[in-house]
Hints:
Blueprint: E1 6-7, E2 10-11, E3 13-16, E4 26-28, H1 34-40, E5 47-56, E6 59-71, E7 79-84, H2 92-96, H3 100-104, E8 109-116, E9 121-135, E10 138-149, E11 156-164, E12 169-174, E13 181-183, H4 189-196, H5 203-218, H6 224-234, H7 243-262, H8 275-288, H9 295-304, H10 306-326
Parallel strand pairs: 3-4
Antiparallel strand pairs: 1-2, 3-8, 5-6, 6-7, 8-9, 9-10, 10-11, 11-12, 11-13
Helix pairs in contact: 6-7, 6-10, 7-8, 8-10, 9-10
Amino acid sequence: MHNLMILNGQASMFYIDETPWHGLGTRLNGPATAKEAIQAANLDWQVSKTPVFTTVNGQRLVVPDTFAVVRNDPINSPVLGVVSKDYTPLQNAEAFGFFDPIVGENAAIYHTAGALGQGERIWLLAKLPGQLRVIGDDVADKYLLLANSHDGKGSVQVKFTSVRVVCQNTLTLAFSGGESFRLVHTPDVKHRLKAAGQLLAQIRTRYDTMEEALQAMARVQVNASRLTEYLTDVFQPSDPADDAALIRAERNRDWAEHFFDEGRGNRLPGVRGTLWAAFNGVTELLDHRKTRQTPHQRLSSLWFGDNYRLKARAFSLAQEKMEAWRN
């Protein structure tokens, strides 16, 4: 079972043009405006804060400084989370507003959007023009991902995401030096999100830097001992004393080694036998090896969960190995 929000009998997600690599959503025939995207993704609703009550000795009392975040719905208004008085909801339309300037200048198009659960988390993916060219025909499309939480447990996040065209592997990188660009749901969140739009001018520079990093990885040759060292560092058992965890880590290393040699795109001239191929062995394993996850659970993990963190670890370790092996 997927974890897409169902509203009025429809799954809350859309995409344009060809079916995306994750295979989810409702297709639109052409580039979407913000209004079209919100409607197609079933995100044209708002949330509000309502007081929380309790009953003591038969008397109904307000819980001080505590509010429920409720999705406004004339039929069903589920509680998405419980928050403090300082929490400021960011409506879906306001989140889309982050991308409006670049979409309006034809510098991006709304590519996909959706919601999880009952609307606790929504996301929006914008496709940017141009591609990252690592080496030869090995290129990646460029995207900008925005995620917003309505349950009080998360912040507004913006991440860079690229999709390797030859095999549809994904690479999600932080907006800045931290895990991602984040905005906490405080009273000035809307002003700060608007101000964050000024950072969009840095997109081209950021992707140029990313392209240079990937090209540098393709210049580092990886022999058997280096590959073992890298994959051992990437796939660490969650508990060294747990035999099952050790087996999972070893199995993941074996699969990543297989994709290093046989993965889609890893036989291209200039890619085969490089650190770039080793990193793509990890991403192909996480993106495409069959698991018990539904497509949407996998998508959520790749963008926000364990697989995102593992990819970030793999990328960081590749940068460290690159510096060490070049010296």
